[in-house]
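[step 3/7] inverse_fold.run input=structure_tokens len=426
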């Protein structure tokens, strides 16, 4: 345990550097609105199964999408999960395409039991990313050229994002029912810049506008799970988790400057608002799963969020309600095989289909994808989880929207060990 605890402390310190200074630098123009591009919720085991997990219970890993699952942690055990991912986004329309990529910290999660049937978990997981970079040069030969404006260049950039820091507990009420609660701190900041530089800079004022949105606030996630044994080693699980809409403390500022060859800059407009709160709606998750212990698990989740009720400074009218289905399968040929390593590997596959919360030009984006994953066994119940996901965001060209193919590969180290146990032999 001492060796793994040392590794855990090192990763914990390393992760603070990632969360304080790093962010996902994958270019997505759809991050220009609301709170940016939302990140999928779930451990890498869950994401390898399409993101489902509301009904999952696992004594060797942490399922933070439903805090009731913490009650399944083994007595005297300690679970530590640290993940990194690498993403590529291919943006395309009928005319051209653009590719960007980046690797960064994804999550840090820890869990341990208080006693049998009562567990605690804490960690930091990503919520959204606001990074994007766009530029355009309009010349006389372009269809969009306007003689009254002249030639110009425009630049649009976004930076920052939001993370969730959570602490939760789950408890078994009896052999069938468990309940849990997460307390989550949403914290972060997004900065956006829009700049227009005109070729006729001697007679025309260039325009520069910037805005900043800072959010902070605590919300609570409530979870319930039901589990039943069907015949020998077969199980059925059902789960539900819910968090209510929350008004977050926010600071929003917007500054517009005009400048030319004869002026270093004049302020045209300035807004600074730290009294209006940002409202982010709650999310409902419901899921079921069925399987055979140490052999296979198949499950389905339904996720719903009333994003149309959101109130986000600077992004009014860009959010729509979302409904999504997440489904997946995990299969283990022979978990305790003494002869074949490949038979002890956990194989996963899944998919997801539904709505994106962003609405532009009167059209709501659609989002769907597929994933695969594996769990590579290590000493005791520790494992290395890998997953690969392709998610596609689509909008019609009729409404001047583009499509994004988002490829993500992730690797996490899931350490499991016993603690507070005295060794009989050194």
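[step 3/7] decode complete -> sequence:
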């Amino acid at each position: 345990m001492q060796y793994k605890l040392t590794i855990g402390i090192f990763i914990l310190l390393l992760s603070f550097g990632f969360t304080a200074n790093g962010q996902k630098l994958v270019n997505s123009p759809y991050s220009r609105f609301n709170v940016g591009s939302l990140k999928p919720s779930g451990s890498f085991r869950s994401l390898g199964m399409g993101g489902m997990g509301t009904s999952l219970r696992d004594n060797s890993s942490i399922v933070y999408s439903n805090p009731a699952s913490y009650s399944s942690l083994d007595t005297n055990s300690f679970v530590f999960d640290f993940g990194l991912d690498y993403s590529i986004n291919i943006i395309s329309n009928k005319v051209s395409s653009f590719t960007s990529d980046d690797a960064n910290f994804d999550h840090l999660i820890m869990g341990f039991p208080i006693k049998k049937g009562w567990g605690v978990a804490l960690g930091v997981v990503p919520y959204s990313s606001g990074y994007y970079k766009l530029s355009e040069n309009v010349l006389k030969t372009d269809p969009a050229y306007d003689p009254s404006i002249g030639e110009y260049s425009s630049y649009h950039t976004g930076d920052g994002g939001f993370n969730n820091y959570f602490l939760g507990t789950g408890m078994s009420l009896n052999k069938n029912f468990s309940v849990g609660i997460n307390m989550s701190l949403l914290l972060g900041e997004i900065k956006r810049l829009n700049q227009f530089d005109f070729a006729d800079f001697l007679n025309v004022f260039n325009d520069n506008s910037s805005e900043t949105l800072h959010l902070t606030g605590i919300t609570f996630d409530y979870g319930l799970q039901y589990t039943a044994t069907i015949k020998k080693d077969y199980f059925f699980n059902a789960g539900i988790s819910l968090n209510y809409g929350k008004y977050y403390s926010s600071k929003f500022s917007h500054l517009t400057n005009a400048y030319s060859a004869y002026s270093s800059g004049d302020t045209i407009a300035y807004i600074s608002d730290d009294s209006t709160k940002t409202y982010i709606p709650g999310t409902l998750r419901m899921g079921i799963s069925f399987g055979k212990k140490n052999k296979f698990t198949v499950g389905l989740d339904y996720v719903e969020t009333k994003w149309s009720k959101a109130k986000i400074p600077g992004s009014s009218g860009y959010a729509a309600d979302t409904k999504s289905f997440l489904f997946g399968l995990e299969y283990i040929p022979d978990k305790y095989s003494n002869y074949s390593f490949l038979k002890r590997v956990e194989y996963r596959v899944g998919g997801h289909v539904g709505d994106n919360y962003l609405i532009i030009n009167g059209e709501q984006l659609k989002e769907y994808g597929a994933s695969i994953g594996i769990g590579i066994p290590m000493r005791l119940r520790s494992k290395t989880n890998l997953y690969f996901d392709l998610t596609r965001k689509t909008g019609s060209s009729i409404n001047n929207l583009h499509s994004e193919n988002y490829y993500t590969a992730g690797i996490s180290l899931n350490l499991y060990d016993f603690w507070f146990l005295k060794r009989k032999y050194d």
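[step 4/7] annotate
The longest strand covers residues 206-230.
The first helix runs from residue 2 to 21.
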